[in-house]
Amino acid sequence: MRIDLHTHSTASDGTDTPAQLVRKAATAGLDVVALTDHDTTRGHAEAIAALPEGLTLVTGAELSCRLDGVSMHMLAYLFDPEEPALLAERELVRDDRVPRAQAMVAKLNALGVPVTWEQVERIAGDGSVGRPHVASALVELGVVPTVGDAFTQDWLADGGRAFVEKHETDPFEALRLIKGAGGVAVFAHPAAVKRGRTVPETAIAELAEAGLDGIEVDHMDHDAEARARLRGTAGELGLLVTGSSDYHGSRKTCVLGEYTTDPEVYGEITRRAFGAFPVPGAGGI
Predict the structure, then answer these.
(1) Do 84 and 194 meet the contact criterion of CB atoms below 8 Å apart?
(2) Quick one: which of 6, 25, 140, 210 is 20 to 30 A from 186 by CA?
(3) Dihedral sign, CA of 272, 273, 277, 281?
């Protein structure tokens, strides 16, 4: 059983529509895939409608959080998408994305980069606009060769020359909201140092005490040493260990199913959740 619990579609910053994503997941030999767009559940309905027979969809979202000035992401699985408190917080984070991206464009213009808001809007399409869309604009203009190369101190990394902060949820509040909506919470790529500053791993124990269910250990941005260390931390704290591709379509080099989650861990996630249930494919449309 092959299970990938972290993917993105055009509902946020992926390049595949939700329908394309689930079809590709089936073609890649996955049995279970989670759709976890940034701070939104807008892609779920389309993904469910297109879900191929034999593939199960786990509904979720990747929530933008900040702890002591450092950005971090929290994967929320199988929560009630209409629960008012969590819905209001997701909308607050999402609504701040447009003025933030516009401010990044202004900073880039001041640095002599001829990026335009219209260009970023076109790249984002119907998705929740974010730094990857601005990064893609820099690639189009030939400023950097890849999206990843835009996430440096020269450009868009935390604290970089064109970086602009956005509203992000305190992770302890995020845990309270996820649990209140019947969901399960997993700390996404906690040791992804190539993305910039990371939350100290000592904070994982505090998050576990506050209700964190697991940590994403097997991820393309974790080397072997980081994976071993995080797996040990999870064992000490009684946390679930997940593995995921963090698939974004053509925007990143990762592929569906590059890293996967143990079926027993997936089973425990489904047992803990009561806000929503995994959706089995019925053949799609």
Answers:
(1) no
(2) 25
(3) negative
Can you tell me the distance from the alpha carbon of 186 to that of 204, in angstroms, rounded to the nearest whole number?
11
The distance of Cα 166 from the centroid of its chain, to the nearest Å, equals 16
pTM of this prediction?
Answer: 0.85
Q: Taking a C-beta distance cutoff of 8 angstroms, is the pair 254, 248 a contact?
A: yes
Distance CA 40, CA 51 (A): 19
207 has a pLDDT exceeding 90: yes
- pLDDT tens for 154-167 read 999 888 999 998 88
CA–CA separation, 173 and 268 (whole Å) = 23
Buried b (16+ CB within 10 A) or exposed e, 25-50: bbebebbbbbbbbbbbbbbbebbbeb
Label the pairing between strands 214-218 and 240-243: parallel
15-18 contacts at long range (C-beta below 8 A, 24 or more positions apart): 15/248, 15/249, 15/250, 15/251, 16/249, 17/43, 17/46, 18/43, 18/44, 18/46, 18/47, 18/50
What is the distance between the alpha carbons of residues 207 and 202, in angstroms, rounded to a whole number?
Answer: 9
